[in-house]
Amino acid sequence: MRRRMPDSRDREMLTGNVAAAWGARLAEVDYVPAFPITPQTEIVEKLSEWFHSGVMSGRYVNMDSEHSMLTAAGAAAATGARVFTATSSQGLLYGFELLYTIAGWRVPMVLVNVSRALASPITLEPDHNDVLAARDCGFLQIHAETCQEVLDSILMSYRLSEDPRVMLPVIVNLDGFYLSFTREPVELPDLDDVRKFLPAYQPTHASFRASKPMAQGIAVLGGSLYSYFRHQIQLAAENALAVHEEVAAEFESVFGRRYGLIDAYRMDNADYVLVMSNSFATKGRAAVDRFREKGIAAGLLRLRVLRPFPAAAIACALRGRKAIAVLDQNISIGFGGITHGEIASALYAERERPPLLSFIGALGGKDITIEEFDQILDDMQAASRSGETPPPRLLYTSTDQAQIDAFLKLAGKEVPA
Predict the structure, then answer these.
(1) Which residues of the chain, if any, have pLDDT below 50?
(2) Per DSSP, what are the bridge partners of residue 84?
(3) Do residues 99 and 77 touch, judged by C-beta distance below 8 A?
(4) Which residue(s) pair with 185 in the sheet?
(5) Which pLDDT value is given to residue 3?
(6) DSSP 3-state helix, strand, coil percentages of the chain (rounded to 5)?
(7) Are 85 and 40 a contacting pair, CB within 8 Å?
(8) What is the dihedral of CA 245, 249, 250, 253, to 10 degrees?
(9) Spatial contact of 88 and 130, defined as CB atoms under 8 Å apart
């Protein structure tokens, strides 16, 4: 017997992982190929429990690896099934070639990535190098700050992905441990409302059927044909910017919650702006509130949709500020912060560009301290006065350095000067 689905008044304390599982359940997915990896495993464990108890219909299958998991997901999506799966960190990289393949097939599906820093050294804590390594593959990317947003973004992602103007797969990203295992109050939407917003998937593209043979992923001879197909993916991703706004407006009309391409916090008169993404943006909001209490006009711009990159919306939001600090939870070795470079590109066409500072922090889940936020503000104010932009700064405190020195001695390595 199927358990009663939630009504619009239900609120439960859910981890980010269980919120993701609820997103798949409410979307009434047809197929979940799965492979466990920390800190994502709770998602597929919960879905497995629901499938095997009869609460969910459809098919759940444990695969041999993330590579086979994504192969199965893409193939099932090509048949017209509504597909969901999830992974993390090394698992995302292990199946990396399939990301390009699935996007090239132009089949809709949702993949949740629970961010975890990449080896080596090995850690279970989060940063964003795993998901940002996939930014060029053709999957759209939505990054969530809260458990509620995880659930809601999955529902929105199916609408976005399945829209005939888009037909591209979507990654929904959440931070491992900081969000995946943190319980927050989450409103579980009524299933009838979800069905109103997200009807059963009716494929409009050609899909694999025994009765209608077709070719998918064919080889092309000559660069012109290949260029044509890649250009079509680019146009579809560009379409997703407008389609997302339509989906967001309808989601708000049904559920009362609004999600934009970007999320502005106390930005109306802000002189100094922090740019962040994912769950650590909550820490940024607290820092902004502290600065406001001191009479400093600070604000926060959270990057929510990273692919397609909403350059015009970002440039509009950052126009006329005294200084901007991008806090990247990633590092492109030999370059610096990934989103700092993308924000700089978005602002390049502006007539007046405020100082754009780069900070790299929270790598491997390291906390960002009050003192470090204070240092970011001090550097923004100094840059605003001088007009000069300092070099990128890696955030870690003297306490961190003491721990680093102790570890290097233990490992028999030279302690740097």
Answers:
(1) 1-4, 8
(2) 110
(3) no
(4) 13
(5) 43
(6) 40, 20, 40
(7) no
(8) 170
(9) yes
Residues 3 and 177: beta-carbon distance below 8 Å = no
Residue 47, classified by CB atoms within 10 Å of its CB into exposed (0-12), middle (13-18) or buried (19+), is buried
Classify residue 109 as exposed, middle or buried by CB count within 10 Å of its CB (0-12, 13-18, 19+). Answer: buried
Query: How many C-beta atoms surround the C-beta of residue 112 within 10 A?
Result: 30
Q: DSSP secondary structure string, 175-235?
A: ETTTTTT--EEEE---HHHHHHHSPPP---S---BTTB----S---SSHHHHHHHHHHHHH
State how far the alpha carbon of 215 is from the alpha carbons of 81, 208, 210, 242, 272, in Å. 18, 8, 12, 31, 53
Structure token digits, residue 130: 């795993």
Q: Which two tokens stand for residue 111?
A: 């993949």
Burial class (CB in 10 A: 0-12, 13-18, 19+), 61: middle
Look at residues 305, 357, 2, 301 and name the one whose alpha carbon lies nearest to residue 135: 305
Can you tell me the distance from the alpha carbon of 277 to that of 174, in angstroms, rounded to the nearest whole number? 10
Which run of H or of E encompasses 403?
A: helix 398-410
Residue with tokens 């790299």: 360
Cis? peptide before 308, omega within 30° of 0: yes
Task: Tell me the two tokens of residue 267.
Answer: 């930005």
Say if residues 176 and 116 touch (Cβ distance below 8 Å). yes
pLDDT for the residue numbered 221: 64
Q: Which domains does the chain have, with CATH numbers?
A: 11-200+221-255 (3.40.50.970), 262-402 (3.40.50.920)
- In tens, the pLDDT along 151-208 reads 999 999 999 999 999 999 999 999 999 999 999 999 999 999 999 999 999 887 655 5
pTM for this entry: 0.93
What are the CA-CA distances from residue 271 to residues 144, 299, 320, 354 (Å)? 26, 8, 8, 10
pLDDT at 1: 30
CA dist 291 and 313 (Å) reads: 25
